Structures are given as C-alpha cells and as structure tokens.
Amino acid sequence: MRVLLVEDDDRLAAALTTALTRHGHRVVRAGLAIDALRLAGGVDFVLLDLGLPDMDGLDVLRRARRVSSVPIIVVTARVEERDVLRGLRSGADDYLVKPFRTAELMARMEAVMRRGTRPLPVTGHKVASGDVEIDLAGRRVTVAGEQVVLTRRELDVLLLLARMPGVVRGREEILDEVWGDPLLSASRSLDVHVAGIRAKTGRPWLVETLRGTGYRLGSA
User: Where does this protein bind DNA (predicted)?
Assistant: First the structure.
C-alpha cells in the first residue's frame, strides 16, 4: 500500500518510514501542507500530523476531504477532546495521539481499511437507501413514498448519518453534534433515538450499529 506520511519531524518521520516499510508499505513523505495536498490524490492511505509549519493540519484535512476519499488517520500530539472531535468531524477516519506503539498504528490502519474507503460527502439534497428517501435540505423522510414523522432529534441523527452514507459516526461524535454534549455517551439517549428511527420507518437495517464503534446509514 502506498502511504503518504505528513510529518515535519525528521526523526519521527524516519522511524515511521522504517516501520511502515517493514510492514510492506511504500512511503511518500511530506513535511509541508502544500506538498501533502499535492500528493494526497496519488496514494492509498494518509497519516497526517496536525502541527505543520505552513498550515494547520485540520485545514489540510478539510481541504483534502473536499476532493478525495482516501483513508486518513490523524497522528498528533494534540490530546484535548475538542481536538479529537474536530479531527473526526473534519473527515479523519481515526485519531491517534503521540506517543504510540507501531503495532497500534498498524492495527488502526488495518481497521480503517476493513471498514472500506470513505465516500465523498453527498452533494445533492436527497439520499436513497432501499425504499427510504432522505431529503437533507427539506428534513423529510419517506418510506415507499409515504412520509414518516420523526422527532427533531431522531431526524437530526438520521440526517447526520445520511450526509456521508457508509461512514461510521462515533457515539461521542453524534452526541456532540446532535445533543451538544459528548459526555452523554454514558447514557442511553442515542440508543433510544436510534430505536425510534428503526421502529417508525419499519426498516431496522436503516441505522446500522457497529458494536464498540458507532453507527452508520445502512442499506437494504
């Protein structure tokens, strides 16, 4: 696999390059954001540091996500919860805090690849899954042509999943986006609303649960 390593620290970049090469990957290294954006379209995977000298890594992430679905793991020293949430919301497939073990990095890369390539964001106003149509702009859901009435939060959860079909949204990410409080992850609020979506639409597959990870829009 061709891996783009975006890291401005020469010593860390050299160590990671050695480890990745040992695991059979071909490594392309970029120390600047401008080079990372130029190279991202020609690789199979990106490891992105956020502390770059010419541009904040989150901006690099957002720009890359506008044009590419390449898997991206943020590899950074930023440990604050808000930074983790920003990274995931901006399009990262995973977030790994330095220092870390090489074995953990490889395991996370394999997990991201197993989940499949992240699709580009939906640019239209409607998303279809089976006989379910989700109108993103109109905030309307129909099943077999008949409108289904959901609560505001049920609808917010479903629209969040529908904006990027197939992408796994973590529990904390959903709770922070919809409820404004990621610490609600200990409650069952999200589970109750997901159950409501499944029951009211009569399509239990519409919201798929990935145990220990989160939820994504399902397909019939």
Answer: 124-219
